[in-house]
Amino acid sequence: MENYFYLIVILPLAGFAVNILFGKRINSEKFSGIFSSLTVFISFIISILALTEILNLPESSRIIYIDYLEWINAGSISLSFRFLVDPLSVIMILIVTGVGFLIHIYSIGYMHNDENYHIFFAYMNLFIFAMLILLLADNFVLLFLGWEGVGLCSYLLIGFWYEKKFTGDAAKKAFVVNRIGDFGFMIAMFLIFINFNTLNISDFNGILSTGNFNINQPLLITIALLFFAGATGKSAQIPLFVWLPDAMAGPTPVSALIHAATMVTAGVYLVARNSILYVLAPDATFIILMVAVLTAIITASIAIRQNDIKKILAYSTISQLGFMFIALGNFAFAVAIFHLMTHSFFKALLFLGSGSVIHSMNDEQDITKMGGLKSKMKITYLTFIIGALAISGIPPLSGFFSKDEILYKTMTEYGSLIYIIALLTAGLTAFYMFRLVALTFNGQPRYDTEKVHPHESPAVITIPLIILAALSAIGGFIGLPHYLGLPNLFGNFLKPVFEKSLALRNSYSPEMVHPVSLELILVVLSVIVAVIAIIFAYKKFSGKSEFPESKGFAKVLENKYYVDEFYDKTVVNPVLKSSEVFFWKIFDIKIIDGFVNLFSGTFLRLADSWRKFQSGVIQDYTTATVIGIVIVILYLLFK
Amino acid sequence: MIKTIDFLNSIPLLIISVSAVITILVGSFYKKSTKYVYAVTLIALIAAIYYSFGYLDKEYLIYNNFLRVNNITTLFSIIALFAVLLSTLSAKAYIEKEEINFIEFYSLVLFSTAGMLIMIQSYNLITVFVGLELMSISFYILTGFLRKRIKSNESALKYFLLGAFMTGFLLFGISLIYGITGSMSYANIFQDTSVFKNPVFLIGSALFMIGFFFKMGLFPFHLWVPDVYEGAPTTITGLMSTAGKIAAVGTITPFIVYTASDNFRLIFSIIALLTMLIGNVTALAQSNIKRILAFSSIASAGYILVGVAAMNDLSIKSVSFYLLAYTLMQLGAFIIVSLIEKPAEGINEYRNVDIEDYKGLARTNPQLAIPLTIFLFSLGGIPPLAGFWGKYYLFYAAIQSNLIWLSISAILFSVISLYYYLKIVVYMWFNPPANGDVYKIDSMPSLSILIAAFLTFLFGIFPQYFFALFKTPFK
Amino acid sequence: MPDINTILFYIFAFLIVSFSFIVVFAKNIIYSAVSLFVTLFGTAALYILLRADFLAITQVMVYIGGILILLIFGIMMTTRITDSEIKTTNLSSVPAVFVSAGVFVILIIVLLTTKWNINPPVENDVTVNRIGNLLLTTYLLPFEIASVVLLIALMGAAMYARKK
Question: What angle do CA A257, A258, A259 make, to 5 degrees?
Answer without folding.
Answer: 105
